[in-house]
């Protein structure tokens, strides 16, 4: 059986994801599609709309064969580490291809860009440092340095100001650096870009646009044209049970309490907290009754909204610099959901897997990376401010992989 891997968050699973899924299967002529998916906290540093089990069910209902969890340490990391963790897991599962969406739509440009930046690594890093010293954010410094290094290139290169191109580049980079056998493919992103508003006249919208509409109207009818019916059903079931969707605004009372129970010096111990921003975080938390007002006080040219959110995610989940530095690569494969086809593929691999396959977590309490995932899951349910959701605490010990 030939397998293709995709890297996803499915927050929530929408028609654009369905297009990507079907195109990935068709383009690689694969028998099995494996999705490595973020857990309850995401790469942009925010809680997921619904939990990982619900999103995994959406995926398998729509045609994904196997969903495995990307551990928290990678799911909430900057793009290069996010990609490294995901590609490592897909390669470990013997995927022949990984297929990502991009604004570029051409693989050659990605390969040329990797060769350019790896060949000029010293000059590139020097340029990044120079731009950072000018007081701009790290992502903007990367882009400015890239423009400088690529100015005289005679081959087609990727536009690294586009969010999906950036992730795609890091997937390619990870495959090279890991010396992985998995091969890349890319699909041109259609209609909706990453941050676009949802257009009611279309059937494809970005997940960001869909969430904005949902939180604005709190009515699933307003987004049903953008999602498969199976996703709408799962969202309806979730909201009936818990009366809340995951967001920092909803989590704010818990996050604010956690921030203020620390001293400013203690906040500096958490991952990604740098350059004294712990002072601004603590001061803003003292004065802010909403997450939006809190963020408006601490955002700056130096730190992007996403980077600040990742800092807050680590504060909320008590994930420290010391823990981050000990987590180089994923240490296990954890299935969340699968089709019968995915189950057959996984069974065929069991003897050849180099990483432990974890279906029941109780026997793996010594695995620090896994325990971090479980802690983050429990804190996610607490953050929902819902009595029914609080009953989900400890759910990772009770849940076996879903088979549909």
From TrEMBL:
<keyword id="KW-0067">ATP-binding</keyword>
<feature type="binding site">
    <location>
        <begin position="7"/>
        <end position="20"/>
    </location>
    <ligand>
        <name>ATP</name>
    </ligand>
</feature>
<keyword id="KW-0963">Cytoplasm</keyword>
<feature type="binding site">
    <location>
        <position position="189"/>
    </location>
    <ligand>
        <name>ATP</name>
    </ligand>
</feature>
<keyword id="KW-0820">tRNA-binding</keyword>
<keyword id="KW-0547">Nucleotide-binding</keyword>
<dbReference type="InterPro" id="IPR008513">
    <property type="entry name" value="tRNA(Met)_cyd_acetate_ligase"/>
</dbReference>
<dbReference type="InterPro" id="IPR014729">
    <property type="entry name" value="Rossmann-like_a/b/a_fold"/>
</dbReference>
<keyword id="KW-0694">RNA-binding</keyword>
<protein>
    <recommendedName>
        <fullName>tRNA(Met) cytidine acetate ligase</fullName>
        <ecNumber>6.3.4.-</ecNumber>
    </recommendedName>
</protein>
<keyword id="KW-0436">Ligase</keyword>
<feature type="binding site">
    <location>
        <position position="101"/>
    </location>
    <ligand>
        <name>ATP</name>
    </ligand>
</feature>
<dbReference type="Pfam" id="PF05636">
    <property type="entry name" value="HIGH_NTase1"/>
</dbReference>
<feature type="binding site">
    <location>
        <position position="164"/>
    </location>
    <ligand>
        <name>ATP</name>
    </ligand>
</feature>
<comment type="function">
    <text>Catalyzes the formation of N(4)-acetylcytidine (ac(4)C) at the wobble position of elongator tRNA(Met), using acetate and ATP as substrates. First activates an acetate ion to form acetyladenylate (Ac-AMP) and then transfers the acetyl group to tRNA to form ac(4)C34.</text>
</comment>
<comment type="similarity">
    <text>Belongs to the TmcAL family.</text>
</comment>
<keyword id="KW-0819">tRNA processing</keyword>
